[in-house]
Amino acid sequence: MARPPKKLHPDESYAQHYGAKIRTYREEKGWTQEELSQKLLCDESQVSRYEHGHAVPDDKGAKILDMLFETGYFSEHRAVAAASRIPPNARELAKYEAQAGTIRSFTPSGIVGLLQSPSYVRSLAKGGLTPQEADEIVEERDRRQGILDGDPPVKLQAIMDEAAIRRLTYKPDIAREQIQKILDRADQWNVQVQLVDQATVTYIGLLCGIHLIGPRKKGALVAWHDGMGKSGRLIDDEEVIADLVDSYDLVRSAAMSVTESYELLKKIQESL
């Protein structure tokens, strides 16, 4: 005798509500999860994750669901369901970024989030706390980066350590895509990219990253503190913000010029 399906909890999040809809439509058709997975061209376990709200189909998957079940629900609500899977603190960051006029970001040991390429994000996710959510993480990062192409676009000042770029070269495929992504963004009028020479062994930026968000309209400057997992948090204390602004300016004074940084990125890319 087959085991009864696991209970769903559609009221706990929109993603779970969305998933429960998939199960309802599937059962109305009399299909098993395996049969639906064959139609969606995915594993049976992936259908289970959809139905429990542990994952949300991509645009193509949502369109197939609409075609199979003769509805427009899954395409229409897919973005909302996907957004509901973002941790609350990360949703708060995305909200402030969407309302920003300028963002000043420095990352000492990696690539600034708004400049990360899909393969780089996926690699980070696979080595993180929730590797099973890599697709959703890549999708959300891409959605966040859309603010650089908005009307008007956010102005981004991004600073990274040269050593972080050099570290990428151990994975040439990822490095090529990532460096090209940075170069493409640096060609935009609203994006400035600078590198700190890896020979600069003592500067304040080695202590932590800095992410300052200035609102497009009237409002206070806020900062984002990166952390592992769900430990990232927003900072709005005026004294702390003032220290971070001063620290960012010191990091920028230690960095190479925009032109020098661009040429170095091209040189590293050509060496791959």
From TrEMBL:
Pfam name, any one: HTH_3
Lineage top rank: taxon: Bacteria
InterPro entries referenced in this protein's UniProt entry, alphabetically: Cro/C1-type_HTH (IPR001387), DUF5753 (IPR043917), Lambda_DNA-bd_dom_sf (IPR010982)
Single GO MF annotation: DNA binding
Residue ranges annotated for the HTH cro/C1-type domain, each copy included: 22-58
Gene3D superfamilies reported in the protein's UniProt record: lambda repressor-like DNA-binding domains
Residues passing through the membrane, by range: none
PROSITE patterns reported for this sequence: HTH_CROC1 (PS50943)
Name the UniProt record assigns to this protein: Helix-turn-helix domain protein
